[in-house]
Structure formats: structure tokens, C-alpha cells
Amino acid sequence: MFSSIEDLGQRLGKAKYVIDEVTLQVVYLAARMQKPVIVEGPPGCGKTALAQAIASAGNTVIERLQCYAGINEEKAIGKFDGALQKLFLETQGDRLQKDWDAIRSNLHTLDFFVQGPLLRSLLYERPCVLLIDEVDKVDEGFEALLLEILSEWQISVPKLGTIKHKAIPFVILTSNEVRRLGDPLRRRSFYLRVEFPPVDREAEILRVRSTTTNPRLRRIIAGLAHALRGWQMEKPVSIAEMLELAQALEILGLEDITPEMRDILLPLVAKTESDRKRLLLRDGFASLVQDSHQYAAKVSQDSVERELSDVPVAG
Fold it and tell me: Domains of the chain by range and CATH?
């Protein structure tokens, strides 16, 4: 999928994904060693975006299995299309007595099977990215279902038989830690812990992925995100929501964030009633804005110091 770590890094850069060195190495090793990667962390910290960026970098498609409580094999693997089987039988009336065994065999082939994302991911001619999203929402029984595909790169289906891979997908399993994943799944995978980025990295994400050209405003938005998450809100703001905030400020023609903008920005940063009430407290939003400017100034100062340290000393 990728010829070298440098190649992967360049491709992810073109996909506008800001990646750290550890994550870059893990992704590269997983691709070379054909190992799944468990990406665990709080909601909104960019886990799904990693899978999307890898698919873009690899110039391939992404198959997504969105997990939820009660998901079953049919949703994940697929099922036989009874209506299509019935229609086929109706067209074979004159052969039913003579060629029944052959007809019955035809009924239980992939031609009559509606494929789910797990099965589709094995049947591409070249590797795809298989995103098993929020796997922590399924039970241990469903986890056990995943073990065959992640160990043998095949799926066994009653009446259909064992379907082996044409190409081995790159597998990302994301977890918001609703439930602890089982050890068998962990043993088969590499593990990445993802947290919300620090202010300087989020400012870099805004530079790469937003159309906001004002460096100071990008730092202030990143500082606001950091301040909001420090409040331990019921629903911490995600990276995607801060990108939307940057877009909203650009549409409104605003070049700063001030306490007077509270009512304008509240619908973008508070997504539950309890979070909204907290931000409506007197001086609550004003203190967040003050903190965001301080964080932005700290990032700016750190950048200046790094630039000065890179200047050679005349001798």
C-alpha cells in the first residue's frame, strides 16, 4: 500500500491529515505486516478521520461497518436475497426435476448473496480500508465473529461456505471506551491511544484543513477548543466541530472571538442543554474567551522562540 514511511507521510499530508511520528510508524507497520489497528480515545478526537485519510492516501475505497448494540451477522456479513432466489426458481420450472441439485447449488452462491461490509472488504482486487467504527458498542459474541476475519482473512457463512480474501484490507477498529474490548481482539491488533490535540497541533490542523487564512484566529479557535474541553463538558467539542466553527467565522467575516459573540457561537459549541446552561452563566463564556486568547498567545510565543532557536549564531 505504501512504499516507505516517508511515502505514507507525504500521502497523508496530501490528504490534509496532520499525523505525529508514533501514529505514522504504527500505520506503516500495520500496512506492511497486515495487522488491524485499534484506535481508542474520546469521541470527536479524530479516530474515524484517520481511517478516511489512510483510504485517501492509499487511493482506495473505505468499507465502513458502523457498530451499535444489537448488530447481527446479517448487517455485518450479509444475507441471501430470498426474493431473488424465488425469482430464479420461477424461471427454472422446466429444469427443477432434472437439475435440482445444480439449481440448489446455484441458489447458495455469491450471486444471490447481499454482501455486508465485512465480506465486501475481502473481495476487492486491491486492498481497501475496512473501518469497524465504535466496536466498543457490540457485545463479546460479535467480537468473536470478527476474530476469523482478523486472523485468517476469511469469512465462513452457512450454506455459502468459507469465503477467502482476494486482497487483505487495512483494518481500523475505533473505540470510544463504552466497554472494554476483549483480549483476543486486542492481541490480534496494534493499539493506538488518541487524545484531543494540544493547542499548537489543533492550530496546525486548522491551517491544513480549514480555509481560514488568519494565523492568529486559527490559534484562538484552537485555544477555545482547549478551554472548552478543560471545562469537562457533557459533550466536549470535537475537532470537526472546531473546523465548522472556523468556517462559520469566515462566513460571518469575523476575525476574532469576543465575549459579545456568545449567543452567535453557542449553537456551534454547546450541543446539550446542560452545556448550554454552563456557558450561559455570568462570565462563563467570557472566561473561556480570555483563556482561549491566552492559549493562543502562548502558542505564538512558543513559535517565535522555536524560530529564534533555529537561527544560526554569527561567529
Answer: 5-77+116-193 (3.40.50.300), 199-308 (no CATH)
